[in-house]
Amino acid sequence: MTGPTSGTEFGGILLRWLSESRSGTASALRDGLRSQAQAWGLELKEYADWDWMRKAAALGFIDVELRADRWSVAPPVLTRLPHADGLAVLSGARTAKTSRRVEEAAEEWMELVTVPHRPEAGEAPLPDTLLIQYEDLRTLQEAAEFIGARYVPCAAMQLTELLPQATPGPESAPPGGSTVNTLEKYELRLQRFVPAERDVEDGLYRWRGADYARLTRVRRNGVFHAVERETGIYLELARHRTGAMRWRPESGKGRAGIGRLFVDRYAPLPALHERAAVLCSGFPPSLGKQAQTRAYDNVPRAIAEAIAASLQQNLEIMPRQAGASGGRAK
What we know:
alpha+beta, 19 strands, 29% helix
């Protein structure tokens, strides 16, 4: 990767490099992202590298396995947005060949809408969102074939059928030895992990393993189980019967079944769940008031309910807001 003088195309250049490289270590990607941001003159806030990787994965550009310290570029996919009036989004790899095909099609016959990412202060810019307008499915399928992308009728809807249920994972060893010194317990009231002297009650814990990797475990009936951090938080929310998700229908005529999904920021969605929500619009979530919530646009109620149910959440349905628009993808 080389560093130009302006940050306006940072996300696109980075995605091109990832697409051509195809895979690598997540730690090297984090380091490379920060060094390139510095070369572009971008000042990133703490954890901005993690945030970029998470959003890029949610948008379907890359797949990330943090436990294995690996990332891989996702194949290019052209998929319809649900109830978005003839709009599809291009996700996945953008090699030089793919980008050239997109430009050629846009110059000749394809209706392409390019929406630049507008990052918050301290964020690393994401690649542009590429939306394709279509009048019939045949045209869309032909566009996918020309670009070299796989056509998927509606990725967001298909992903909801693959969402895993939030349950404790396989039984795991409890903390012991020197790991006790790094033991932390998740406090729902504080919405964060805090130091703990012992694991004397059920809950969500984490500690440093022998290789200094941070382990997250949920304790149920005195037995520890392996779990991802995001899933563990939702298990704690369910144990305490606490809601963190709300959905508000749009106010437009005929749009009552489409709306905005709000998720409390302290309870981030697991990777697959977030991708299902993001691919409803093709945009990363926006931050709500005081940055306490993440808002996902153009989410059908059926998808919001599927996401909530798989995370043991009772989705709160908010009243329609008069005169308000619920999403960017119309």
